[in-house]
């Protein structure tokens, strides 16, 4: 699907908010509806008896028209006797005006009436006596109407992020919308919402700028509720940490949620809308044992006290549209405590008793309105659920990911048929093992797309909850998730960047959408290699593959340069939003990587015996850290006039921090000098030759450095004329990197072993080279991937052929993984294929030209995915050799330092088999699906030359 057809399709189907109407649309035709012209705005009518959520949203439309046109429409509750134009807003069954139009067949609600949160927007001529024309916004229920209203706001150019990300509203003298009809069918997912979590920065900001006497209170939640509705969400788990006020502390909070139409629930450790962090201790103090001791939050010890604690909240909040979390965990996200139940079967029995008690309380205190009820098998509770916990059929099962974007398990056939349905709890931000990521929006959107598609294919469509941390910095990811939750079929495996084009175009103007989308796609790709929050010492290699760490920071630097060039073109009004949504994330991620790169170079310099260069790298590392702190100060104190004071902080005091200032080593100055060398592939010295191939036509580096602090003169020369050097000498104070390249037209065919000679300070050092030239004719005729440098490296999406079988196939997901895309075995509901793979399993085929024979390891870089009730397998074979089945990590252990932890830190899992190359020449590498939903990113065959490195070696040559 092309981008144009993608956008046309969305517009035609009404599947997504339309792009803002450009100023050129001022001369709109009769088919458009004018909301404002010549300083006059069209009145908005909403029946006073409609739901408060609808009345309030109509007021927002009134404000939005003023934001665009500078004139505020009147908000009326009765239809005027005469009006040329009107906007009529109402809910079917709650608005007499809307019901009258439906009864007269003037308004087609056939795809809306009786549906969940559906709406239609349509222009009706002469809808009522005395009214010439009306823009009618009608919803199937209160939120359907609200979403129809906010659709109109977005269509005239008011972004859902106008306040939360300072996206400006373009002013126009004439404001129109297409006549429609625009039908928004009911959403793909019934409840769609967020969990504000690990929210210290949000709390700090709220106290500083919104409510000095509260730690997230009604004024802040009012902004949150409006954002959710503008994003077509309807559900919230509120902030719950010790430094935040618990939601029900301020009784205005649940009342506000009811008035906005937001369903409020609670997270996995907060059973029955109770915040254990704040509320249990006072309750326990009021319900001491006879001996005066405080009761424990342990149902096997104090069931009656805990039951009363839950009952009080059910009684207090029973009148609101709420979601009730049943089951139990420990206080503040800790494991379930059961002193008198030590075995798994005993704990299962206790959990069953807890659920029965909670259900009884809800039946007695809330009645039939106590829905939805949800059960979240999170961490240790998942083990108990799989061991036999009986969850009532009408309760929604909320399946958690592993906190890092990989679903732990999905419902089986029996669970899919339950009346209560299924949902997910998915993390875009996380505090916990093995590492936390709380600072930036770094979860690759194509990864989110892949997992959410898999989720929906398993009929998980009742509730999707996303952990968004502090909300700020997750703007793009949150918008993407809410769009998918509304229409999961809207995007295909190649459309994620098209979403970014459309979304960023809506925030910054269409002319900039494609470039910003490309920037964000590259930003996510680099984060998929390693989140900036996961950066540490000695992760990326500084000596292999052309200095892979250096290439990474260069990629970030080039990306930041693109960001700045584009930012300079934007109108001034967009600068704050651009900084928040585009520039700060890229700049911050670059600096986080940069400071650790220089720190690694500093440590390497110590090992290499460098002098002045050691201190130079220390200076650069500390300068990068200081710059990172400065851009954060800018965000908090200068952007939007200081509006976001405290909202962004990589180093909060009470939750896990991003990597801070790396330790560096400094040397005392010594009045000496000396020549030192370290060539690529060598931490110290030059023992490993620099490898060159006529296929890959690489360049290689030699670091020339001073072992002291006094300047010295140096020079370099090659033993053959066809080796080119980027520098051949000069004065050396600390270090210089010299690049060597081959002038291939001048090289005789064959294998050559020339040398480079570096001299200075009375010393001469040789660097060996190995140059293999198979000739230009061989390069032009090569088919498939060609072995060179002792390996074959393949991007999995570059297959020669994909063979579907048994109703399953491999497909490319663009923007997924560490490169341009990965391949995924679909459908994700396909049955596993464990036997006769060559005839029953879908396969990928890759042509490979080997220059050596032998038995070699082949490593498949699999993107992590889990199935705690199944397996995660694929198979590889060379030619007709029997396939070798490789089993990936299927279980999230929650530990540090094990296979699961390594997989989520690195974003891939390396699965290795061995293949035998009987003779040099062309062969076919085959990859088979065993379990569905497997995604493969890269494949590396080590024929003896794969050196240390975090990433796969650069992709091998293939003629394209």
Automatic annotation (TrEMBL):
Please state the span of the N-terminal signal peptide per the UniProt entry.
Answer: 1-25
Instruction: Could you list this entry's UniProt keywords, alphabetically sorted.
Output: Hydrolase, Signal
Q: Where is the Gylcosyl hydrolase 115 C-terminal domain?
A: 784-955
Gene3D superfamilies (UniProt xref): 1.20.58.2150, 2.60.120.1620, Chitobiase/beta-hexosaminidase domain 2-like, Glycosyl hydrolase family 115
Q: One short Pfam family name for this protein?
A: Glyco_hydro_115
Superkingdom assignment: Bacteria
What Gene Ontology molecular function terms does this protein carry? hydrolase activity
Q: What is this protein called?
A: Glycosyl hydrolase 115 family protein
What species was this sequence derived from?
Streptomyces massasporeus
């Amino acid at each position: 699907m092309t981008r144009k057809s993608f956008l046309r399709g969305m517009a035609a189907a009404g599947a997504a908010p339309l792009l803002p109407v450009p100023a050129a649309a001022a001369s709109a035709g009769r088919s458009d509806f004018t909301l404002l012209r010549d300083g006059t705005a069209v009145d908005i009518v909403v029946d006073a008896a409609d739901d408060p959520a609808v009345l309030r949203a109509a007021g927002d439309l009134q404000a939005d028209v003023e934001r665009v046109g500078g004139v505020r429409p009147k908000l009326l509750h009765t239809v005027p006797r005469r009006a040329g134009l009107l906007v009529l807003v109402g809910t079917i069954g709650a608005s007499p005006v809307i019901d009258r139009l439906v009864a007269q067949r003037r308004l087609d609600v056939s795809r809306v009436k009786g549906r969940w949160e559906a709406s239609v927007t349509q222009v009706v001529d002469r809808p009522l006596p005395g009214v010439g024309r009306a823009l009618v916004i009608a919803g199937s229920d209160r939120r359907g109407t609200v979403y129809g209203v906010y659709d109109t706001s977005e269509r005239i150019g008011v972004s859902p992020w106008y306040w939360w990300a300072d996206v400006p509203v373009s002013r126009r003298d004439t404001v129109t919308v297409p006549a429609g009809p625009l039908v928004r069918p009911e959403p793909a997912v019934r409840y769609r919402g967020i969990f504000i979590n690990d929210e210290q920065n949000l709390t700090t900001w709220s106290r500083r700028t919104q409510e000095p006497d509260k730690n997230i209170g009604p004024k802040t939640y009012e902004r949150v509720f409006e954002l959710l509705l503008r994003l077509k969400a309807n559900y919230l788990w509120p902030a719950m940490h010790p430094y935040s006020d618990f939601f029900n502390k301020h009784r205005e909070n649940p009342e506000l949620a009811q008035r906005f139409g937001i369903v409020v629930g609670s997270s996995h450790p907060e059973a029955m809308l109770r915040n254990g962090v704040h509320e249990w201790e006072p309750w326990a103090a009021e319900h001491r044992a006879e001996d005066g001791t405080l009761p424990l939050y342990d149902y096997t010890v104090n069931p009656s006290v805990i039951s009363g604690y839950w009952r009080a909240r059910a009684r207090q909040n029973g009148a609101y549209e709420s979601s009730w979390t049943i089951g139990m965990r420990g206080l503040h996200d800790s494991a379930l405590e059961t002193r008198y139940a030590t075995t798994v079967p005993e704990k299962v029995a206790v959990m069953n008793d807890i659920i029965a008690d909670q259900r009884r309380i809800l039946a007695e205190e809330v009645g039939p309105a106590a829905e939805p009820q949800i059960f979240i098998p999170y961490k240790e509770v998942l083990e108990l659920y799989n061991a036999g916990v009986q969850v009532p059929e009408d309760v929604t099962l909320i399946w958690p990911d592993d906190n890092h974007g990989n679903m732990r398990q999905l419902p089986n056939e029996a669970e899919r048929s339950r009346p209560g349905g299924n949902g997910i709890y998915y993390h875009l931000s996380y505090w916990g093992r093995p590492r936390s990521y709380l600072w930036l929006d770094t979860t690759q959107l194509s990864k989110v797309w892949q997992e959410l598609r898999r989720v929906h294919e398993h009929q998980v469509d009742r509730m999707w909850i996303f952990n968004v941390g502090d909300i700020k910095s997750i703007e793009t990811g949150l918008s993407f998730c809410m769009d998918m939750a509304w229409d999961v079929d809207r995007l295909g495996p190649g459309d994620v960047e098209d979403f970014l084009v459309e979304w960023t175009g809506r925030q910054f103007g269409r002319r900039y959408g494609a470039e910003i989308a490309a920037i964000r796609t590259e930003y996510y790709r680099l984060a998929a290699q390693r989140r900036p929050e996961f950066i540490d010492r000695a992760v990326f290699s500084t000596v292999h593959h052309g200095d892979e760490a250096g290439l990474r920071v260069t990629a970030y630097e080039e990306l930041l340069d693109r960001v700045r060039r584009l930012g300079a073109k934007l109108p001034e009004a967009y600068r704050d939003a651009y900084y928040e949504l585009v520039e700060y994330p890229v700049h911050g991620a670059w600096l986080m990587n940069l400071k650790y790169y220089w720190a690694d170079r500093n440590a390497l310099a110590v090992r290499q015996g460098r002098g002045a260069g050691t201190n130079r790298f220390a200076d650069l590392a500390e300068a990068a850290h200081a710059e990172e702190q400065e851009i954060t100060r800018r965000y908090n104190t200068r952007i939007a006039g200081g509006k976001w004071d405290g909202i962004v902080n990589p180093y909060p005091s009470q939750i896990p921090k991003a990597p801070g200032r790396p330790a560096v080593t400094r040397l005392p100055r010594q009045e000496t000098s000396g020549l030192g060398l370290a060539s690529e592939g060598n931490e110290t010295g030059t023992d490993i030759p620099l490898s060159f191939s006529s296929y890959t036509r690489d360049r290689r580096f030699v670091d020339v450095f001073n072992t002291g602090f006094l300047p010295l003169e140096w020079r370099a020369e090659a033993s053959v004329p066809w080796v080119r050097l980027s520098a051949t000498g000069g004065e050396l104070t600390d270090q210089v990197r010299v690049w060597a390249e081959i002038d291939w037209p001048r090289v005789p065919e064959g294998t050559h072993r020339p040398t480079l000679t570096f001299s200075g300070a009375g010393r001469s050092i040789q660097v060996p080279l190995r140059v293999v030239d198979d000739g230009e004719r061989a390069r032009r005729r090569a088919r498939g991937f060609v072995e060179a440098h002792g390996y074959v490296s393949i991007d999995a999406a570059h297959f020669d052929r994909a063979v579907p079988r048994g109703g399953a196939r491999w497909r490319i997901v663009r923007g997924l993984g560490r490169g341009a895309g990965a391949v995924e075995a679909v459908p994700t509901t396909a049955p596993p294929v464990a036997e006769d793979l060559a005839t029953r399993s879908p396969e990928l085929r890759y042509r490979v030209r080997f220059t050596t024979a032998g038995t070699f390891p082949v490593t498949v870089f699999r993107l992590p995915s889990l199935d705690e009730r199944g397996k995660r397998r694929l198979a590889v074979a060379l030619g007709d050799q029997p396939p070798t089945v490789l089993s990936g990590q299927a279980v999230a252990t929650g530990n540090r330092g094990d296979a699961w932890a390594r997989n989520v830190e690195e974003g891939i899992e390396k699965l290795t088999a061995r293949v035998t190359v009987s003779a040099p020449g062309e062969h076919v590498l085959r990859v088979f699906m065993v379990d569905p939903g497997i995604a493969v990113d890269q494949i590396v065959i080590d024929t003896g030359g794969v050196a240390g490195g975090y990433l796969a070696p650069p992709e091998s040559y293939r003629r394209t």
